[in-house]
Amino acid sequence: MTRLAFLMLLYAVMLWPARYAFYGLFAEWYYPQIIYETGVWTIYLLLVTLSVSPVLTLLNRVGQGRSLGRWLLQNRRHFGLGSFIHASLHVMHYTIETNSASWMLIEAISIEYFVAWIAFVILALLAVTSNSYFARRLGRRWKKLHIWIYPAVLLSLAHWYFFDYTEERFVLLGGCFIALKLAHLGLRRLPRRAAHG
């Protein structure tokens, strides 16, 4: 499979839950469904993106899986871009449904929407600078910039919590975020082993 074909397949899989965004605009089920799917998959793919660092650290420590490590490094930004596409669809359909700039401004100052807008701005900045050009241009500052994915995840989870999209799932997603960060910190303390295969 060529690189282009693989990326087309990867994005098709990542965006499949958002298929409602492309048809059924005036169906009664439409708006709640697309807002829910794009919102939760924004968070899912952010967590997938965050999981790459602890997995890479684990592979480095055990000295195994170099090919998997290369694959993860090569595709991590695409998981992040998939998350941003879902977030963009989320915002786009919220804008279409609200259909009022003044009302959106009023809602934006309430905490549940404010945290969402800040998260979206961060994700947009990370998406724009995710390519090799900005990585080279920014140098060491690039990594410092992309650490902002952590506040973006926290703000997205806060948005979820304020709208109370099932507390059980909020606890699960929040627990995954904490576990990933603790795993990364813990694995970094382990000594490296000689690499194999």
TrEMBL record:
It is found in: Membrane. Its main location: membrane. Coiled coil: none annotated. It comes from the Bacteria. Keywords: Iron, Membrane, Transmembrane, Transmembrane helix, Transport. The chain crosses the membrane at residues 41-59, 79-96, 116-135, 147-163, 169-187. It is a multi-pass membrane protein. Residues 38-156 form the Ferric oxidoreductase domain. Pfam families: Ferric_reduct. This is Ferric reductase-like transmembrane domain-containing protein. It comes from Roseovarius rhodophyticola.
